[in-house]
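Why Clathrin light chain? Reviewers of the renewal asked for a concrete example.
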Amino acid sequence: MGMRELLVIGRVAIRVPAFVPSYTQAPSSFSSPAPVQLQSPAPQGGSYSAFIQPEEPEPEVVRQRQEHRAEKIAGRDEESKKEREETIARAGRGIDKFYEEYNAKKERAIRENKENEAEYLSTLTDSLSSDTTWSRICDLVDLENSQFKMVARAGTNLTRYREVPLKLRKEGDKALGAAGY
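Here is what the prediction returned.
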């Protein structure tokens, strides 16, 4: 290699070779003409002189501005880092709170369901052992002291449908199917 020149672009200095080495084409096993040599023209001494500048010291104002800018960027980065950590911590607390509330609600629902189930089973066994089938039907349908809940066509009289279960209930154990199952 020959002498190298210094190429300065902006604030970056690069050393470049004074000439580019030649490359030869490798001969192949096939018959071919003589190898071709490629060579770039070497730059002359004055061709890069416009880009080569001696390094000048930066003015004090520029240096102070760059330092001030770097401090502001570092401050913003630090503030952003703190804000991110606070957000992550707040999200973690929110997730913990959610699962605490969720588990408490789930435990309460399980407890209430067990209590309701026990109450339902006790009333079911009590009603099955004490009443007749027709009294249980009247309790479920609630025929007494209320308007009949079924929607009927205009002009249709549904009093007979209410009277049949009530009559069978009054008959007690003597009614048809009152013994239950």
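The mean pLDDT is 76. This is the kind of structural detail the renewal will allow us to pursue systematically.
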